[in-house]
Amino acid sequence: MVVTRENKIVLSFLLSVFLSNSCDAIKCFDCNSANNSACLDMHLHKMHAIVPVVDCAKALPNALSSQFFCRKMVQTILHPDQTPDLRVIRSCGWVKHKRECYTADNKDHLETVCQCFGDMCNAGNVLENVKITVLCALSAIFVYVNNWRTFSIRCYDCNSANNSMCLDPTVYDAETVRKFLGTIDCQADVEAPQRKDFFCRKIVQTIMFKGHEPEVRVTRGCGWVRHHRDCYKADNEDHLETVCQCFEDDCNAGTALTYTTALVTALSILVIYF
Fold this sequence. Notes:
Elements: H1 5-20, E1 27-29, E2 31-32, H2 45-48, E3 53-55, H3 56-59, E4 69-77, E5 85-93, E6 101-105, E7 109-116, H4 125-128, H5 130-151, E8 154-156, E9 158-159, H6 174-180, E10 183-185, H7 186-189, E11 199-207, E12 215-223, E13 231-235, E14 239-246, H8 255-273
Antiparallel strand pairs: 1-3, 2-5, 4-5, 4-7, 6-7, 8-10, 9-12, 11-12, 11-14, 13-14
InterPro entries: QVR-like, Sleep_regulator
Subcellular location: Membrane
Main location: membrane
């Protein structure tokens, strides 16, 4: 399965929606373990009741940015004559870092800061699972798109031995192609040994005959055993064969495969001369 530009745009849009989650109106836990020990560990639900929650936009009306998010800071306070002190601060943030979690080594303390973008996500247990949640969501979206494109693919299905239009459908108008050539749904119309990752295929054969000129035959259809190259050649006993595979609806009409061949040729020229 090749992820197209359109699929990437859809995934990027869904990711931005997933992460934005109405940052302007976000609510966060607000506490400091220096004066509230419940702030240290909020894995227990009863701790939530004794840690205040604030609406960031209302609590920080004079902030430089309205794009608020939640933040958790774990500080190790260094003392010259005693054991270091661990301090946890949970609050609203408004200056985003490029990474979700980062560390800082200051003069008198070490600091780890994590940021997240959902209501009350800085409660520790939620914050630790932000990356996993995002990855799971993206994985589910990608699998859905991948399966949808793979198993519902439609391909031209013909053989120039009994349909001359199969030689080159691009010379005909779209209405004529739809009427006399047509496509099939690979998953619904092809009997394969088991459910397969279907794709479209175009085979150009040069049939050798003793005593007269070779015959060029073109076959278009569904395939389910992929080759490691998009196009490859085979020299059989009685015919030469060029097979090209592609992974979008109706891509084996000729034009898409022509573009693929042209791209491979262009890249080869660049490699050779540059």
